[in-house]
Structures are given as structure tokens and as C-alpha cells.
Amino acid sequence: MLEAADTDIARFFSLFADDCVFRLGNNEIVRGRHDIQEWVGGFLGGVTGLRHTVLEMWFEGEVTAVHADVTYTLHDGTSLTLPVVTRTRIREGQAHEYLIFMDPGPVVAASS
User: Which domains, and CATH codes, for the chain?
Assistant: First the structure.
């Protein structure tokens, strides 16, 4: 999923179930693929790209956790790298729950 987020955002969103639950940091929960796309589009509007470097992964049944560094490229060409953990619940090949544990404040502040 993270590779798709880095290279093909449409493919990334195709991996979400229609009724997926999404949350980034302490933001409100977003429900449903369409609303998630809109929310993420607004958040990523302040950057020109992102790249994840996976540091470790953990799988247990339908749940996957990934510890990574995510590097955001800003409109001025500078970059910002933040630690992140994602926790995803996969059923029938689609994400039904996608939780991102990260402080998005530095990205928001830098892109304002």
C-alpha cells in the first residue's frame, strides 16, 4: 500500500474498501473511500510528493503494522521526513481500517 501511495495515488485508493475507516494522527475519523480521497487530497495539496522508507513490518491475521519514515517534498523543493506507524486491517484484499500514527503538524505548518 505504501508503494502505491508513493507512486500511484489512484491505485492506493483502489485498495480501500468502500466503507473503510481512516484516521491520520489526532484528526477525526473519516469513513468511506470517497471521503477519504477528499480528505487525503486536501492534506497532500501542500506537497508535491511523498516517499516511504519501511523500517519494519508486523503481520498478525488480517492486521498489518508498518514502521516507516515518510519524506514529503514541499512545493518549494525542500523535504521533510517524519516517523510514522500505519496499522491496517485487510479483508478480501482491501483495507477496511487504515490508521496512521504520526504528527502531521510539521507538514501542515511547512506547506502553509
Answer: 2-111 (3.10.450.50)
